[in-house]
Amino acid sequence: MDAELLTVDRGHVRTFTLNRPKRLNALSTALQYELADRLIEADLDESVRVVVVTGSGDRAFCPGIDLKELRSAPSGVWRGPYAQPRKALWEVLFEVSKPTIAALNGLAVGGGFELALACDLVVGVSGVSVGLPEAKLGLAASFGSAQLSRRVPYGVACDILFTGRLRPLDELVQWGLVQKVVGRGQLEREVSELAATIAANAPLSVRRMKATMAKGADLPLMSAVRLGAGPDPYISKDRHEGVAAFLEKRSPRWTGK
């Protein structure tokens, strides 16, 4: 039996591939738990600087939770992903302290689209369908409902949530939710180049920037500036290395310390 989650390291980039092609990479409970655990490991691994999440095959990135599994659950046992004894996958992904990239190779709806919303950057194949159809299924899109209006204008979020309509990924570029759409044959190269560019920068600086944006978003400007969220690059060895490398006209050798 093939593994439901594939993990590949290239340099300082760790890529997780959802690998349930017969179910369009739907999120079984087991896959949710495994990916959440692997994300926590990646966040603690100092050799990892960027995390990428994608799906196997050409048809789907992820259609969300496995509805066949959900239907088979005893009545009253499952009360939603945020009523469980452990953190939900989307919460874990959102809280990763390192840059995260969603590489949308195909359909991304429901909890699958919410995985993209939990990532910092989104790159996908032009024309693939995305959306949150939970209103058509009697579900809640809890993460999407809370996060979407933080990423796009309120009216756009309402349209996506209330109608449940799927739309081409390309429509979301204008709102900044998607950074780039590419041809199918270009996705892996585009994401690899983006991830490698980020990974080549000082890891403590990048983590500090992400923490400041995440934790300072609702604060007054100077409160956010002075928050001191995340690691402090100003007192790091990498700060000395970065300045020295610039003055000596060479590539820096980051240690993450």
UniProtKB/TrEMBL annotation:
Keywords: Fatty acid metabolism, Lipid metabolism, Lyase. Pfam families: ECH_1. InterPro entries: ClpP/crotonase-like_dom_sf, Enoyl-CoA_hyd/isom_CS, Enoyl-CoA_hydra/iso, Enoyl-CoA_hydra_C. It comes from the Bacteria. PROSITE patterns: ENOYL_COA_HYDRATASE. Belongs to the enoyl-CoA hydratase/isomerase family. Could possibly oxidize fatty acids using specific components. It catalyses: a (3S)-3-hydroxyacyl-CoA = a (2E)-enoyl-CoA + H2O; a 4-saturated-(3S)-3-hydroxyacyl-CoA = a (3E)-enoyl-CoA + H2O. GO terms for biological process: fatty acid beta-oxidation. One of its GO terms (molecular function) is enoyl-CoA hydratase activity. This is Enoyl-CoA hydratase.
